């Protein structure tokens, strides 16, 4: 009888702890949502300078009047030529996207991010396409300027994703910009994209930029050339 009572007590404490944890997470989420307008500029411009966030980039003309724009950036201690191969091989059934694969695969994207350069995916041409998942959008290469810019555009014309490499004294500034036209510009759709998709995209894109940075810098640290690594 004492054992049963003890087990019940332990079970109740576990349930109580779980309830407190869920309640705490809900409170944090509510605060984050209610204060999002204050930290939204940081979210959509993570890592980017004021100039990078506002400057015109390759591919901007492909979606002339977007509903949503994010510009995020990172400094990579490697020359553009050492960063470019990691961009070229990105994609499902290619080199992956260097972010949280388990989240991508929950969405059915079939992503497996690699830590090596893949020679078979180092040649990219305008018009090359890849589909994000079985029923996701088709992204097609719209601009390819080796070691300088790569722009992907969805076939429906509602989304462009540009990657721009800018050489500098510290290495390379990698700028990533998304320009999106909402499929249905309703208050509900705009609210969903603003309060759910924007923060969610920061989580995934920040990890991606850090993943590219890590891979490119490790290649340079090893003293290997792109050709050697491939």
SSE topology:
Elements (H helix, E strand, L loop, with lengths): L1 H33 L1 H9 L5 H5 L13 E9 L3 H9 L12 H6 L22 E3 L6 E8 L3 E6 L4 E10 L2 E10 L6 H35 L4 H4 L1
Antiparallel strand pairs: 1-6, 2-3, 3-4, 4-5, 5-6
Description:
The chain is of the alpha+beta class and 230 residues long. The chain folds into 2 domains: 34 residues; 186 residues, START domain (Alpha-D-Glucose-1,6-Bisphosphate, Chain A, domain 4, 2-Layer Sandwich), CATH 3.30.530.20. Helices cover 44% and strands 20% of the residues. It has 7 helices and 6 strands, in the order H-H-H-E-H-H-E-E-E-E-E-H-H. A 6-stranded antiparallel β-sheet has the order 1-6-5-4-3-2, with helices on one face. Helix 2 crosses helix 6 and helix 4 crosses helix 6. The longest helix is centred in the last third of the chain and has 35 residues.
Describe the structure concisely for a colleague.
The chain has 230 residues and is α+β, with helices and mostly antiparallel strands. The protein has helices at residues 2-34, 36-44, 50-54, 80-88, 101-106, 187-221, 226-229; strands at 68-76, 129-131, 138-145, 149-154, 159-168, 171-180. It folds into two domains: 1-34; 44-229, START domain (Alpha-D-Glucose-1,6-Bisphosphate, Chain A, domain 4), CATH 3.30.530.20.
Q: Approximately what portion of the residues adopt beta-strand conformation?
A: 15-25%
Gross CATH architecture of the largest domain: 2-Layer Sandwich
Strand tally is 6
What distance separates the N and C termini?
68 Å
Identify the strand order in the major beta sheet: 1-6-5-4-3-2
Give a short account of the largest sheet.
6 strands, antiparallel
Low-confidence stretches: 14-29
CATH topology of the largest domain: Alpha-D-Glucose-1,6-Bisphosphate, Chain A, domain 4
Estimate the helix proportion, in percent.
Answer: 40-55%
What is the C-alpha radius of gyration, as a whole number of Å? 21 Å
User: Could you say which overall geometry the principal axes of the C-alpha atoms support?
Assistant: globular
Mean pLDDT: 85
In N-to-C order, the SSE pattern is HHHEHHEEEEEHH
Structural class: alpha+beta
